[in-house]
Structures are given as C-alpha cells and as structure tokens.
Amino acid sequence: MSDNENDTVGSRRAFLSGAVAAGAGALTTSVAAAQTADPLITEIQPWAQEFGDGVDAARYGLPSEHEGDVIRRNVEWLTADTVSSINFTPIHALDGTITPQGCAFERHHSGAIDLKKDDYRLMIHGLVDTPLVFSYADLERFPRENHVYFCECAANTGMEWAGAQLNGAQFTHGMIHNMEYTGVPLRTLLEEAGFDTAGDLTGKWVYVEGADASSNGRSIPMEKALDDVLVAFKANGEALRKEHGYPVRLVVPGWEGNLWVKWIRRIEVTDGPVESREETSKYTDTLDDGTSRKWTWAMDAKSVVTSPSPQAPIKHGTGPLVITGLAWSGRGAINRVDVSKDGGKSWETARLAKPGEKMALTRFYLDTNWDGSEMMLQSRAMDDTGYVQPTKTQLREVRGLNSIYHNNCIQTWLVRSNGEAENVEVS
Amino acid sequence: MSDNENDTVGSRRAFLSGAVAAGAGALTTSVAAAQTADPLITEIQPWAQEFGDGVDAARYGLPSEHEGDVIRRNVEWLTADTVSSINFTPIHALDGTITPQGCAFERHHSGAIDLKKDDYRLMIHGLVDTPLVFSYADLERFPRENHVYFCECAANTGMEWAGAQLNGAQFTHGMIHNMEYTGVPLRTLLEEAGFDTAGDLTGKWVYVEGADASSNGRSIPMEKALDDVLVAFKANGEALRKEHGYPVRLVVPGWEGNLWVKWIRRIEVTDGPVESREETSKYTDTLDDGTSRKWTWAMDAKSVVTSPSPQAPIKHGTGPLVITGLAWSGRGAINRVDVSKDGGKSWETARLAKPGEKMALTRFYLDTNWDGSEMMLQSRAMDDTGYVQPTKTQLREVRGLNSIYHNNCIQTWLVRSNGEAENVEVS
C-alpha cells in the first residue's frame, strides 16, 4: 500500500510540474483571452449592485434551482409501481464521497412508511435470556458509534449481465450511497437481552425484519451481527429520511443493501437461517450452469468512472482533463484504482483523494491531458485483501448471462472525439 | 495522544461491563414491561398492512415531516434584516459530525445572490506574471482535493461575553458547520498565474473578494493562502447551496468564517494587507483596556455539550444517559475532551467517536448514569498543540466584557432534576 501511495503522490507531482504545466499553457491562453473581452469581467453585474435574497431559516434548505437535474431518477420499465420501486443516486454529478440524503438512492418493497418516533418499537427475542422491547428513547440511552459506510443494492449494475444497456453512471452504478451513520452496535442490544456474545456462536443467526408491509425479513449470521452491525438513527448527522427507514434502520457494513432493513421492528436470535423469500427466490446468484448460490452477502471490490460519462460528457475540448470516479469494497479498504483509456490494454494508477477506508466510498482522480482522440475509459479497483475487480468476461465465465445480483465488473465508457460518452462492451 | 486513546477505550469498556450493566438493570425492567402491554407490539399496526408512499424521484428529498423543528433558526433582534442576517445550525438535534447543507448555518452581508455557473468568473491578478480569468468550467480542469473542515463564524458564542443570554446550543454555538469540500488548491491557481510559490513570500498577501454587493473583501497572508486554502465548488458531494456561495466559495481551514468568501470573484496578490472595512471596523477583538487587536484569524480550541442542553432536555429520567457534544480547533486536531457535571470542579474524559482530524468537528460521548441530581454540565477541549479550552473568567481577564468575536470559553448548562436545562454562568 505504501508503494501505491508513493506512486500516487509521484504521479501527482509529475502532473503538477510536467503534464499540467504543459496543458496549462493552452488553458492560460484561452482564459487570458477572456479577460479583456468578457463583459462579465469588464462590466459591473446586477448581482453586485443589489441585495441578494434573505434565507428563509424556517424552511429546510434546498439546492440551487440551477442544479435541478441533480436528483434521484428511476427507470420506469424496471419496476412495476412507485411503491415497489428503486431510484438512483446522481453519481455522475457528485464529487467527494458523502452522499446527501436528499439524493441518495432508495429501494423499497412496499413503499416508504410513515412511522413516528413515539410509535417506534424494536423487539429483540428468540434465543435470549430476556426478550426486550426498545422504544426510540430507549435506544438513545446506549453508547453510540459513528461510521461512514457505503450501502449498495445487490442489483446495482445488474442490467449489465446481458450487455451494455443503461446509458449513464447514475443508472448502471447509482444504486449506492455513502453516509456517516450514528447508531448503537447490535452487539450492545443483544448483550442487553442477555445473549452470551462470548459463548458458542456456532449455528446462531439473527432474523431481522422491518415494520413495513413487505417486512423484508433476512437472516444474518451471528458473527456478522456481533462484528459491526449498527442499529442506526442518524445519517450525515441528521435523522434518517422517511425513505431511508425513519426513525431506525439496520446498517450492515459492506453487505448488500437488502440486509440494511429499514423501519426495523424485530430481531430474533435463531439456531439457523430462516430461508425467507428475500433470500431464496430473491438475492441469490444464478450461475452459468443454471444453479444458484446463496449467502453472497459481501459486495466485492468495484469502481466506476463518474466523469466523463454518458451524463457528464467532456465539453471543454482538448487539454487538461480530470477523470474521476468512485471505488469501494465490502471486504475492506480500497488501496489502489487504475484507469485505462484503451479498454484495458494499458493502465495508469489514479490518485486517491484520501487513503481508502473500510467499507466506504473512495474518490479517485486521474489528472491527465486529452488529445481529443476516442477513449475506451475503464477503472479497476483493488482492495486490501489483494482482490482485483474483474472484467465482464471473467465474471460471465462463472455466472453466465442470467444473473441479476453482484455484478462488480469493470465498466467501459466509449468517449468520442466530440466529448460525448456511451455505455459499451469491450469484446 | 495514545494515552488518551487508551483512556477513552478503557472508560468505554468500564462503561459496558460496569456502569452500563448496572444501569441496564433499570432499563431492562422498564422496557420489558412494555412488551406485553404495549399495543404497538401486540397489535398489527396500519403501516404493516398497507403500502407506504412511493418516492417522488423527480424532486430533491426532504427530511421527515416529523423532524420539522430541525432547521436553521435566526434571532430576530440580532440583525437588522434578512439580507444582512445570520442563522444557526440546529446542533442540539444533530449527531455525528457532518452537517447537511440544508441546515448548515449561513451568514451573508448583502443577501444570497443568484449566480449561474455560466456567469461565474474568478480573476487572479496583482503581483502575478499573467493575470488570469477562470470560468467555472476552467476550474474543473485542475486537480481537486477533498477535505472535511469546520467553518465557524468569528462571532459564534459572541453574546456570551456579556453573560449567559441565548438559551440553547443552537444559538450559543450554532454558527458552525462541518462539510466535506471538493475544490482546487488556491496554490495551484496562483502557480497557474505565474506566482513564484517557491520565492520570497515576505510581505506577500492575497486580497479576496466576493461577487455580491458587500464584496466582503479580506486579506490573507500568503503563507496561509499557499498552505491549505481551497477554491471549492462542492460540499458534502453536491454543489454548494446558493446561500453557501454557489457556484464557488473560498475554504480557509481553521480560520474565521468571514474569510471563507462566498461567490468568490477576485483574488489579488498584494504586497501588504488591504486593511478593509471587514478587517478593521469588524472582525477585530476589543480588549479589556479598550484597545483592539486584529489578524486573529484562527479559531481556538472549543467545545460544547449539545445534548442534554436547553433545547434537548433529558426526558427519560434517571439511569443510563448519553452526554454528547462537539469539539474543534482551528490550529490542529482535537485529542481529548473532558466533561464536568459540577461546573468544573471535577472532570471525566469523554470518548471520542473517532480520532480527531485537523480543523474538523470531533464528536464526543460520555456514557454515564444519572441519579437525577442537578448538574452543571461543561466540556473542555484540548488540541494537539497542547492548548486547553479556557474558562469564561480566564478569557474575560484579557478581553473584558465588550468583545464580540473569538469567544471560545467553556460553556455551562444547568440541568435540573426534572431534566430541563438552562444557559448559566459559573461564578
């Protein structure tokens, strides 16, 4: 990892002293020309001569009206109804790593329910000494933790199994968000109910269920439940939004989003998995030979270039270009991301904005110069387990074409000479 | 610092195995009682029998309607008009460290202006080889960085000089927010304009100015300008909100918020400070002897208990109680926070949710048991320079009672036996 950090710093320095300086010439020429001719500089503008608006402090703030297209979007043909629907984070328009709740992807199975804090109850029962019921106020009395984690739907990128279909990073990779959660470790609540966390955990599971009509029940092995699962009530500092499980949801770091049960009402300690609908008919992985495998909870290392991309074309012509994207791994921390401009024939190591953190989004940048020729842009993530993000061909050799979930293949954008980009397959 | 980390982990373990276990008895009794009698558990609730709402993906998401009081608030008598106004972050209701933009405090001097990306220009001129004008699209072509920083108004807690006045952490300490910024280092843009960052910086300053009518011009010494100042266009991943300087603001880590010029339009390299209105008649510190001192840019180490507090009283009675708050330093990272229940006579070391990061908010927790007796709650922050947050008495010895800015005194909340809290002074 330190080798990689050196590489990253090294390539950045080379960029600042060499590549950017070269590109900077062109940039300087074009912007310096604007200085004398541009009325936005030579004339006093209206916004410098009048008061702007006051801020209505009695209302929760919203984005600038000029950013009206940076919103979640759905794909109408993908789900039957808005109450059994999914929408996608506008990752092509975001930067950094935090996802604001207001544009964070959301999936529900029977609609987002309206559940007041005063009406909230969480029951822990089954193989425990003392079955307990917690109110929201009870939960606030236990020691809390804060962690930034990504939440990715198992079906993210799922349409790509059958070929390049959805044209935009928001739609191919936008079933993901990354927030700072505040909550109580599930371990603490299980101990409160008298479960012996130091005892024999063999065969022990928890079955978790939401308060909505779908209930969305899932089984989680006890080792994971005691490791890092949170019963969370805040995201990015504030209360969970209604569609994210207000007032309380489960956070299952690194594992598929369907396990992050919203409006969580019940946690039962069992002596085996329940084999619920949500883990048998759904959320299993069809293989090339027609059989399916289950219990594939962890989201493997993955990445995507968010800009340039089909919804974020290059508009500034040749010269300095920032290629950027996101990488993540459900098994650890991202420690390297490579970017290819030629569909995987050659690779350059990208700069990570910060050292990768466990089970959280990592932002990468490749600061480069574009000569205007066509690019087949790809990114390839690696995590600290040594895992390398696979190609689509490698995945299909095992999984075939009929899977839905857990597609973490390398994504390809064809960037044309006019700067427009398209979702394509590399043969 | 490692000593402190050990202390923190140690006290947490003691809490989990000792203090909480003791308190847990009471908690278990009360919540177990709810299990059989509570119709919220025994009866199937409406939200489990019907579809919830679909999510309107065409609109930016808002908080739950049940969180309508978690908003910025202003103090009507404090400023003359909404276009020359300030509003306060609801820190009493938040947890974790990230502040969502929609409730992040905001101060403007002539209103929040409406400035489109296409109309945006930034000029860098003065003592540079090549004066340059950058469009928004130009800025996006330079290498970006991501950092979480707090922004605190120099006047935060300013009313406390004259005594305990505003009753609530939102009003005494809410002129602060903490966001993940994405932007271009100012150093990069100065180098682009041909400023010799490796040359003699003695006496060199930058004068920075916004595009609004107030222009809010401020002088910044070149050493700081080249150190960590960002020309930023994203906060928490998305575009800056209008009231936070859309589309581009300056980020001056650790230094008073007035320097974080919004809608930044001009950066002039000068051979001295401008001594503008905003740094002579304002943003200087009156001392006890009636003179004033200036250039007090850095925000010293500070902390406040956010809950319990006047707007967040204790409602659950005696037993386990989470005391939590925020700590920060403009000169480095927080490495320890102590909490007192008796007005500073005795102190307990709080648990930091994460190791402190430079110039960013740190969340602290004291997981304790409350016997119902009156408390004089205080918190005391320390940073990695060795600085310890002072008492109000210590500050007044130097600054007197007539200052406005840079009040980083220890705050006291009187918590009564009924759980209600009040802003008080400790004599």
TrEMBL record, chains A, B:
Cofactor: Mo-molybdopterin
Keywords: Metal-binding, Molybdenum, Oxidoreductase
E.C. code: 1.8.2.1
A GO BP entry: sulfur compound metabolic process
MF terms in GO: heme binding; molybdenum ion binding; molybdopterin cofactor binding; sulfite dehydrogenase activity; sulfite oxidase activity
Every Oxidoreductase molybdopterin-binding domain range: 115-275
InterPro entries: Ig_E-set, MoCF_OxRdtse_dimer, Mopterin_OxRdtase_euk, OxRdtase_Mopterin-bd_dom, OxRdtase_Mopterin-bd_sf, Sulfite_DH_SoxC, TAT_signal
Sequence ranges assigned to domain Moybdenum cofactor oxidoreductase dimerisation in this UniProt record: 293-412
NCBIfam families to which the protein is assigned, alphabetical: sulfite_DH_soxC
This protein's name: Sulfite dehydrogenase
UniProt organism field: Parasedimentitalea psychrophila
